[in-house]
Amino acid sequence: MVFKRWQDVEMYFKEYAQQHDFGVCRQAGSFSKQKERRAVTSRCDCWGHPDMRARWQAKKRAKAMEISGTVATSNGDIGENELSCCKRTSKKCQCLARIYASVNCDGEWVLKTVELNHVHKLDPSGSKLVKEYRMKNHTSTVKKKLMDFYEEGVPVTQIHGCMAAERGGDDDDLPSVKDLQHEVSKERRLKMEGGDAVAMMSYFDRMQADNQKFFHAHRLDKEGRLKDVLWVDARSRVAYQEFGDVVCFDATYLTNEYELPFANFVGVNHHGQSILLGCALASHETTETYFWVFEQWLSCMGGIAPSVILTDQVATMRKPIAHLMPSSRHRWCIWHIIRKIPKNLGKCKQ
Fold this sequence. Notes:
This protein is an alpha+beta fold. It folds into three domains: 2-127, no CATH class; 131-191; 211-349, Nucleotidyltransferase, domain 5. It contains twelve helices and twelve strands. It has helices at residues 6-19, 52-68, 80-83, 131-134, 140-151, 156-166, 177-190, 195-210, 234-243, 287-300, 318-324, 334-349, and strands at residues 2-3, 24-31, 37-44, 98-103, 109-115, 215-220, 226-232, 246-254, 261-268, 274-281, 308-311, 329-332. The strands form two sheets. A seven-stranded mixed β-sheet has the order 6-7-10-9-8-11-12, sandwiched between helices. A five-stranded antiparallel β-sheet has the order 1-5-4-3-2, covered by helices on one side. Helix 11 (318-324) links the parallel strand 11 (308-311) and strand 12. Helix 5 crosses helix 7 (177-190).
């Protein structure tokens, strides 16, 4: 068989794979010195050794523990993120099904090798597990309908049910509820690229023009969209000088509008009242993001770290705090600990 582009080769194999209930992954490709693709290999997604996922997860856990500085000890002193890690069963079974195509002298893509025999049984429901197949019918019209209903306050689960009802109750070729929730989250985040982000930056500029003590910082992603934002008003900066010995950093909020983690720095004044010491909108709850947030906040506060900082039990916060605030005592918030006691004790009883 001959194709015009390598993308057409993959598209044809994926259509075949969907009809025969298995997923596809691209194994490799070769390129010319001009960085032009010259060959491509696509395989059944069950290709590979069964322990590949376990190896990858072990490396990921080791890297996370290295970044967070968490080390298991004889008394079981290990973070909850590491405790929750478990080995998942892999579907990898060294399946041999694959195609290999390369470019001939006329610039056409020719199938050179085709192996269609699987070493595993094909499950009729297998194609439902492949997101790419489920999202095929998620057209711009369907996406608009999803967002219109969501903006009216209809839950995503009900929207999914309505879509299935329109198809006579058949949801085989529909995106899952989780797929729709992901699409909604992505659309809400993209709104920050337009007028809302501009309005927020304009507001910050006006605040700073009114009071030079107002501090704000932001950074963009590779596409130029607003990624992370931190701001601290003049009153918070003054209050920190007097009441910055103990600070609680809470990143457990989610904004309804954009579903971005909203974090705040909170202290306590001499009346026992909570005082706001800074705010941030974070794109991801990663070590790299918290490094940026803490670094900007400390810069705003003159580089003076608190004596004690309280946080949730999140491993990705540990290394930034240890690196940027080496003299601060890092403790876990008692509210989060108490909240998890019933669930963990319940598991122990079972």
